[in-house]
Amino acid sequence: MYDLEGYWEAGTVEEAVQLLEDHPAAKIICGGSDVLIKIREGKLAGTGLVSIRGIPLLQKVTLKENGDLYIGAAMTFSHLTSHPLIRRLVPVLGEAVDQVGGPQVRNIGTIGGNICNGAVSADSAPTVFSLECRLRIEGKAGVRFSDMKSFYLGPGRVNLAQGEVLTHIVVPREKYEGYAGHYIKYSMRNAMDIATLSCSTVCKIDLKKNVLEDVKMTFGVAAAVPLRVPKTEEALKGQPLREELYGLAAGLVRQEINPRDSWRASRAFRLQIGGEIAARSLREAVLRARAQEEVRLRGPKQQEKVQIEAEQTGQQQEIMQPESDQHRKEVR
After folding, report:
1. Could you tell me the fold of the domain covering 56-175?
2. Separation between Cα atoms, residue 22 and residue 30, nearest integer Å
3. What are the start and end residues of each CATH 3.30.390.50 domain in the chain?
4. In this structure, are residues 15 and 53 in contact, taking their beta carbons and an 8 Å threshold?
């Protein structure tokens, strides 16, 4: 049994905002994989809940005319992983959320909840940071947009006021077009475990010059909030695409991240693992960027073929096995 003050279902974002205004102590619930546990443990006993799960607007992925990708905050992890637009434009995000918990959690948990929870170990957070997403937030005062760095205030704390609702995660076109990425999660188990350390790398290459044109790298559980490594990124830009690049990345990362000691792992262990997963993540991102660029250079027909194949694969996965454990990787 749950000790609740009340439970209210919103049919629109406006209604959700009003309900939160009417019940100042109420919390938002969508999947409930975090908030219900806290209520049952007594940490939020007597709390009211405003459900946004039934709002259709928040359960869609939309590609705007300007190319920006709008991801509804109520999209579950399993639906994100198999969505054709995600698979075609930002597959690294689908790869990341496919590593959350187990199939049951991925079928109810949402990307909006994962972000608003403020956990530094959230699997979606490093990729959302590396893609330089913007958050669309709606409240009584209207709509505002926030960058990821401003949104995360500390462990378990985010810049979301009472009465505000995160409606969309926005991936700007210029932040994903021409980029490829890879997410690695190091944990004690391959599934049903939170990250000991994680890394998401997004990069763009210049195939003609054979150099790393741009790179964005973010770590989870390496600081009090998801951590970009700007010094490392700047040092890697323009570097030739050869084996030495990955050793350089590992060394630079170990100088920039600031993990802590905990019962899960020591600081020294996390520093060692941080360099290793940075190198592996960058290596795979470069391989994917190279393949992507080669397809682009072959012309529109080849691009269209790859797009159709990606969409067909996504549809088949959603119909047959939305909870699949694809892309799971073990780092030893």
Report:
1. 3.30.465
2. 19
3. 179-300
4. no
